[in-house]
Amino acid sequence: MPNLEHPAYPAATLLHLESLVPCRESQVSMLLSIFGERQQFSFPSIFIYGHTSSGKTYVMQTLLNTLQLPHVFVNCVEYFTSRLLLEEILMQLQSCCSETEQTSHVHCDTFNDFVRLFKQAVVSEELEDQTLYIVLDRAEQLREMEANILPAFLRLQELTDRNVTVVLLSEIVWELFRPNIGCFEPFTLYFPDYSIGHLQKILSQNHPPEYSVDFYAAYINILLGVFYMVCRDLKELQHLAALNFSKYCEPVVRGEANERDTRKLWKNIEPHLKKAMHTVYLREISSSQWERLQRDDGEPGQLKGLSAHTHVELPYYSKFLLIAAYLASYNPVRTDKRFFLKHHGKIRKTNFMKKHEKTSNHLLGPKPFPLDRLLAILYSIVDNRVAPTANIFSQITSLVTLQLLSMVGHNDQLDGPRYKCTVSLDFIRAIAR
Q1: Distance (Å, rounded) from C-alpha 192 to C-alpha 263?
Q2: Domain named Orc1-like AAA ATPase: which ranges (predicted)?
Q3: Does domain 316-339+363-432 have CATH number 1.10.10?
């Protein structure tokens, strides 16, 4: 029995829609009940929120396209100013019912102009007898625009006196949107995260035709068993599933196992899935480079220049500054004379020093150091003489901007700025080579 039912749409269309939006039937059913029939006035504004990759954008696009409802779909990150946003809505509205895209540019400077042009466009496109939907994806960007934009969109049906519904899609809750001056409250709809059963069902739908459904479902089960605790992003899991499936199939292709030998298949794929754990979300290497690594049975760090954590191109003196900062963060101040002076004389090792030097400074974390100590260590580790020019100080600022160094305290401190080195020992070793 189909989960989606609505008297205004054919049963076959709703059945097809249900197959396109698995595990989101309850949300689609709620939206259908809110939308009503084509000619009926819908709710003025709808606010849909949920975590990333919970299906908000996909469900809205699929629903509107499958039911062939007139709509405008705009990403607020791409059109980041109010003028760009309003002009794009009008441009899409003009080409909503025409076969070819509209080429003439629309000028719209204020929301008053938008309301006037919107009324004209609705009349010219003959959209008065059905609901028009304006979907604003990544709607949290509206908070960065003028103060009247968000309240005006929420009341667009009232301002234009037209049958229009504004749908806001966001990853944050409505309480972070609500203006201080008060505004029309939209209908809020929450998209929860996919459960592991939902992810299993959705990912299993993408099985290759040359393999059975049960074989691919078993692979997805293994994949989720490894990655579900660290990654629940559907897009990332789809990428991982497509990237590692060829390695899972290798024993079957070579004839060493059949599709039901799950133990052999698991033993073959387990080390490669563990290596893939290091690249979840990071995209340190491309898909083709990862596949090449799998064929060569190499480690991700063996490809020169692939990891952003072990290979960074920096100016010549910036590398020495970073090394000097690391030495200043992890070596006690009392050891500077011993390490960086050639004729430091005899240094007595007291019981106090021996007791505390047993603890590794890497376990205690980086310590802050002043600017003059950083420059003193820099002068001692660079072979040629370095003048304290503005270029050196600007490179220190660049390292702070790149978050390789962090500034401790405030810029207005009388005793000068203090810094910490935030990179690892492996990073410094790669720089030092």
Answers
A1: 34
A2: 21-167
A3: yes
